[in-house]
Design goal:
heterodimer; A: 295 residues; mainly alpha; two-stranded antiparallel ribbon; B: alpha/beta; Rossmann fold; 3 domains; six-stranded mixed sheet; 26% strand
């Protein structure tokens, strides 16, 4: 029973990590007033580029770095269009999400010669912490990116509350005109968070394709980027609440996985995390409104 | 110091700025000395805001330049302006509602220790400044929770924290109660006494006379007068501002209002979502040919009363128009001049012609649609009749100055076939010329038999226009005065002091 529980918790963390990394990107964008709904596309792009680089070099860490850089460049499209050219970020983000879906499917055929799912013995997955000599329960079977994701939550909270640039980013997000009036470079902060979110989504994609599994399949982000967007909105832009919201999704996915083992049809198990997250979102929104009305 | 001691703290020399066809500033010279409160007055659209924006680095002049302590400076952004010791308190506050008072003040120049924000030092600095200038504000309070008067203090403190030696205040009293405004002027005196030069942009002459040392008057982008406050008076300033003297107000009509009440409010009680009574048992009538004024400190139930009378709060038996209950959702029998000019009164992005038509579209509609030509020509007719100053009726109404937008709202509402007129702060944020025009229009409507309900936070306006003044306090009508009531009496009733 003990083993079962540890492995359940471990499954929760595995499911949480990619969503959490992407959601952290969304959170810092939200802080500075960029409504970033391109997380889904960036996550998918990150997963694809991680697999390509890992496959070419045979190094999972090169895959992680490649995904971070490639997704940073991808996010550059968003920051250039939405921040520099002042296009509507929602429209740009929708375009990027569609671009990622089509471009990964296309490039997959060009590079790997077939669509669907790609995996290969040449494709190096991320090592587990256990393999790296840190054999502890729950974290042991995880890739190093999982504790990184958890530490980044703490780092994000510290950055927002304790540093000068965090304060300024919050100011930029709350009232851009006011920020300009006190001499802050609004565009600079917005470029910064958008690009940083790209790096985080790259890590999220690498974790998804090289940590959770070791393969790429078309559309493998499967809505996790959207769940991340929801988590950002649910969090009220607070990192620890964001962690809770992402954990909720992770738990739901792990439970769905278990239920599938217990005979639940796969489609229902696949849908479970999204249904549970959606219900929780609605309940939280209702509760939040009650609280505000009573205040 | 190399600078000559006689140099002005800040000087604008021959500044011109053109926006498209409009010459907003035309060769303006303006100089303000250390320790001086210098008022910049003019009508809406006279070029005051543009001039101050140039001084704060928000706009760049087409010609002319800025001197700071006798030296020429280039101001390309607010950051440049701040670096040169210029500070600005904006009319629409540039504050962050979700940050604390201390964070709002230090942002952009935060004390840092060991790579992290030094909150303790920030609080200490804010408290020290607050004590020095008598501007009390709790450093750890969230700005979003503060009343506007305190928010303004935060803006002033921010400028002082950034070591502003020239402080620009753009219409600072527009959002303040009379008491808060007096308090602000005291603060400005204290600040000026430390050697800071203060530029006070306003169109309220009483403030100019009460608070300034020097006055520069602008009209249509040019300087039309420079005065020493002690040596001038309101008449002279008005003449420089609008190029003529004000016509004396029309004599109050001797004939009393007559007939059955057009508006009858009976025992009206309004509760908010939490069941708290915002209005309790309010009763009064307005007869045709009568202006009834509503006075009260903000939040005494004015909003609820007006929303009930216009039908915006839904139908109620407590409000009768010509004997029948008000219909829910903007009863067409009421003409309504809302306070919120670009929220309730107009659709800011739609054209002037369209805004002038709203609510009256059925009169122009054909079976197949709304002929644009008819909409425009009706717009042009009203522009002509109400002397609205605009390049075209196709401009979005948000592009008009506040006074002209307000004239458009009056044009639309006063041409409705309505016997009841509800006017809410009808002259807020407009200059003396437009104010005079608005008053004349309301009086003309009254003389033609309209029943007017006038809500205003300006007691002078109520005393000038109203035949009777009702005072609201905590949702009740606590007193009724004639037009010759003293301001002190009204003020006491407004604050709940029983006379």
């Amino acid at each position: 029973m003990n083993i079962l529980e540890w492995s359940f918790l471990s499954g929760v963390l595995t499911a949480t990590a990619p969503v959490l990394l992407a959601a952290l990107g969304g959170l810092i964008c939200q802080v500075a007033g960029v409504f970033n709904i391109a997380l889904e596309g960036q996550l998918l792009w990150g997963a694809f580029t991680a697999v390509v680089v890992s496959d070419l070099t045979g190094s999972a860490w090169a895959g992680v770095a490649g995904a971070a850089v490639a997704t940073l460049l991808f996010a550059g499209l968003l920051s250039a269009a939405a921040v520099s050219l002042r296009a509507d970020p929602i429209v740009v983000a929708v375009g990027l999400n569609l671009l990622a879906l089509g471009l990964t499917a296309f490039l997959m055929r060009q590079i790997f010669g077939s669509g669907g799912t790609y995996t290969s013995p040449d494709l190096a997955g991320l090592p587990t912490l256990a393999e790296l000599g840190l054999d502890v329960p729950v974290l042991g079977p995880q890739s190093p990116l999982v504790p990184v994701a958890l530490l980044l939550v703490v780092a994000a909270a510290w950055w927002l509350g304790r540093t000068r640039s965090g304060l300024r980013a919050r100011g930029v997000g709350q009232h851009a005109e006011a920020a300009a009036a006190v001499g802050l470079r609004v565009g600079g902060y917005r470029h910064g968070v958008t690009l940083a979110a790209g790096v985080l989504c790259g890590l999220a994609g690498a974790q998804l394709a090289l940590g959770n599994v070791t393969l790429f399949s078309e559309g493998m982000s499967a809505g996790r980027g959207w769940i991340a967007v929801v988590a950002v909105m649910l969090s009220g832009v607070r990192p620890y609440r964001l962690l809770l919201a992402c954990l909720l999704f992770g738990i739901a996915e792990a439970v769905g996985f278990r239920l599938q083992g217990a005979g639940l049809p796969q489609q229902a198990a696949d849908a479970a995390p999204y249904v549970i997250t959606l219900v929780a979102l609605v309940l939280a929104a209702v509760a939040g409104r009650r609280r505000r009305e009573n205040a | 110091m190399t600078e000559p001691p006689a140099a002005f703290a800040a000087e604008l020399v021959g500044v011109s700025k053109r926006f498209g066809p409009v010459l907003a500033n035309d060769g303006i010279d303006l100089a303000v000395a250390r320790g001086e409160v210098h008022a910049v007055v003019g009508e809406n659209g006279a070029g005051k805001s543009t001039l101050m924006s140039i001084l704060y680095g928000l706009h760049r002049p087409d010609a002319g330049h800025v001197l700071r302590a006798g030296r020429r400076v280039r101001l390309r952004s607010p950051a440049d302006a701040i670096r040169h010791g210029l500070g600005m308190v904006h009319q629409r506050f540039r504050l962050f509602p979700g940050l604390t008072v201390a964070e709002n003040i230090v942002i952009g120049a935060e004390p840092v220790r060991g790579g992290r924000l030094d909150h303790t030092a920030a609080h200490r600095a804010v408290t020290a400044l607050a004590d020095r200038y008598g501007l009390r504000a709790d450093p750890s309070a969230l700005v979003g929770d503060l009343p506007v008067g305190v928010r303004q203090r935060v803006e002033i403190l921010r400028a002082l924290y950034r070591q502003a030696e020239v402080l620009i205040l753009d219409e600072p009293t527009a959002v303040l109660t009379p008491g808060e405004a007096d308090r602000l002027f005291e603060v400005l005196r204290t600040v000026a006494a430390t050697g800071v030069a203060i530029l006070l942009v306003t169109h309220k002459l009483t403030e100019v006379l009460a608070a300034s040392d020097q006055v520069t008057v602008l009209r249509q982008g040019r300087v039309t007068g420079r005065f020493t406050t002690a040596g001038t008076d309101a008449g002279e300033l008005v003449h420089a501002m609008i190029g003529r003297s004000l016509t004396p107000p029309a004599p109050r009509r001797a004939r009393p209002p007559e007939g059955d009440p057009a508006l009858d409010v009976r025992d009206l009680t309004v509760r908010d979502a939490d069941g708290v009574a915002r209005l309790s048992g309010v009763s009064f009538t307005v007869r045709p040919g009568e202006i009834v004024g509503i006075a009260g400190v903000a939040g005494s139930g004015q909003r609820e009363l007006i929303d009930s009378v216009t039908g915006l709060r839904g139908g109620t038996d407590g409000v009768l128009l010509d004997g029948t209950p008000v219909r829910p959702g903007r009863d067409p029998r009421v003409a309504y001049i809302p306070e919120d000019r670009h929220g309730r009164a107009t659709a800011p992005d739609m054209s002037l012609a369209e805004n002038l038509l709203m609510g009256g579209q059925r009169t122009l509609a054909t079976r197949f649609g709304l002929p644009r030509a008819a909409v425009r020509s009706r717009g042009r007719e009203l522009v002509e009749r109400f002397a609205i100053n605009t390049a075209s009726v196709d401009l979005p109404i948000a592009a008009l100055s506040g006074g002209n937008a307000q004239k458009a709202v009056l044009a639309r509402e006063l041409t409705r076939p309505s016997r009841v007129i509800v006017a809410e702060e009808p002259t807020q944020g407009v200059d003396v010329g437009v104010r005079e025009r608005v008053h004349a229009l309301l009086i003309a409507a009254r003389d033609q038999g309209a029943a007017v309900l006038l809500q205003s936070s300006e007691l002078a306006e109520l005393r000038e226009l109203a035949d009777r003044i009702l005072v609201l306090f905590e949702g009740r009508t606590v007193a009724e005065f004639g037009p010759d009531a003293a301001e002190a009496e009204l003020g006491q009733a407004m604050t709940g002091v029983r006379g």
